[in-house]
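Notebook, student rotation project (T.W.).
Task set for the rotation: take a protein with a known small-molecule partner, predict the structure of the complex, and write up what can be learned from the model alone. Partner molecule chosen: 2-acetamido-2-deoxy-beta-D-glucopyranose. Sequence and SMILES entered below by T.W., checked by me.
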Amino acid sequence: MHLPLYLTAAATIMASSILAHPGEHHDDALVKRKLNMQEVRATHGSRALAKCARSQAYQTNDHFRRTSDDLDKWAAVEHNKTGKITPFGNVFDTETTCILAPVITDGPYYVWGELIRQNVVEEKYCRGVPMYLEIQYIDVNTCQPLPDLYVDIWNANSTGVYSGISESGNYAAGGWNSTYLRGIQPTDNDGVAAFDTIVPGHYSGRATHTHLLVHTNATILANGTLQINSGSITHNGQLFYDEALRSAVEASDPYNTNTIEVTSNEEDQWAPEQATSSYDPFIRYVYLGDDISDGIFAWKEIGINSTADYTNDSDYAIAAYLGANGGYENTGAHAFSGGGGSS
Ligand SMILES: *[C@@H]1O[C@H](CO)[C@@H](O)[C@H](O)[C@H]1NC(C)=O
Ligand SMILES: *[C@@H]1O[C@H](CO)[C@@H](O)[C@H](O)[C@H]1NC(C)=O
Ligand SMILES: *[C@@H]1O[C@H](CO)[C@@H](O)[C@H](O)[C@H]1NC(C)=O
Ligand SMILES: *[C@@H]1O[C@H](CO)[C@@H](O)[C@H](O)[C@H]1NC(C)=O
Ligand SMILES: *[C@@H]1O[C@H](CO)[C@@H](O)[C@H](O)[C@H]1NC(C)=O
Ligand SMILES: *[C@@H]1O[C@H](CO)[C@@H](O)[C@H](O)[C@H]1NC(C)=O
Ligand SMILES: *[C@@H]1O[C@H](CO)[C@@H](O)[C@H](O)[C@H]1NC(C)=O
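Predicted structure of the complex:
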């Protein structure tokens, strides 16, 4: 049988790095994830752009008429690419590119001022299925990748609780100061932002999802944080996980200790909003080992309108800020309305 290149390369590099650094601890899963990422990414940029030239099928406004038919269509697509990646193969063949993804709510738990870091998995409260995630942002106006965006990521931990927010409905261990599973990364020349995180767990009333918020022209301060309310909010979206993946993850430890009732993608308020007839809201993925607990590599291409600004949109709200004095609730504006003010 022909082994995918990333696996043989992983085996070779793992063996040689162990020889090169005797006694050093190696996280095999992490090495595999990184190699897998490089392999997929080598194919990624060029293929995405080649495809872009053929596909101009973007929508012209952000307020689509969305039906659950659109979600059903994407739910029927196979997103599990395990064993289907071949060197320079067809990983992105079924991926739509240059398709505008709807802007939907950032929910009640967005914290401005998070750490700029790729690995958002902290020592505490982050046990779960490792996920190496790559998001490629494409400008629907030009079909070109968008470098220098700052992308905020946040999601609940495997038992359904967000960090950074400590109020009814979500009491984070560590309170407003906690930062687990939150971070910011810039996009590279291929428009790609990459994160080491985990597959989220679920909480009451929501299907499993990961939040992504895009800042354009944001100012980075000397202390390495984003200047409050600088730049534009050019996209606000959520990634969803197909039901097969969700059930595999939920059956594993520690997700299976969560007794809160599961909400399916179909039942979710936002999954159908995130789907359109041309935009698939589900990530694509490969297993990094035989078992789901070894982790997944996941990827998604997201078309955005680089000249749009949702700062004043009702879908955008800042729930809290993280600063030198720790995290604090945004009391400057209604929690679900735009802007947030600077307090
Ligand atoms: C998830 O977060 C909550 C609160 O922050 C914490 O009590 C719980 O132990 C965490 N779950 C895991 C698996 O760490
Ligand atoms: C994904 O595909 C692999 C390989 O066929 C299989 O072992 C695994 O169970 C699948 N997982 C899901 C969630 O469909
Ligand atoms: C970002 O800044 C550039 C250069 O100043 C400007 O042309 C562009 O319109 C800005 N983008 C947004 C979304 O504000
Ligand atoms: C992008 O946003 C600008 C500014 O809001 C708008 O004029 C333009 O129509 C949008 N383009 C697309 C393709 O949605
Ligand atoms: C948002 O509202 C503020 C205050 O009214 C205004 O100064 C700013 O120009 C608005 N931004 C956008 C992108 O509409
Ligand atoms: C970074 O610097 C800004 C501006 O001085 C400040 O408001 C913010 O609290 C600082 N953040 C951190 C985490 O130190
Ligand atoms: C939050 O962090 C700040 C800054 O490090 C610290 O002064 C404050 O005591 C912390 N608050 C809590 C509740 O831990």
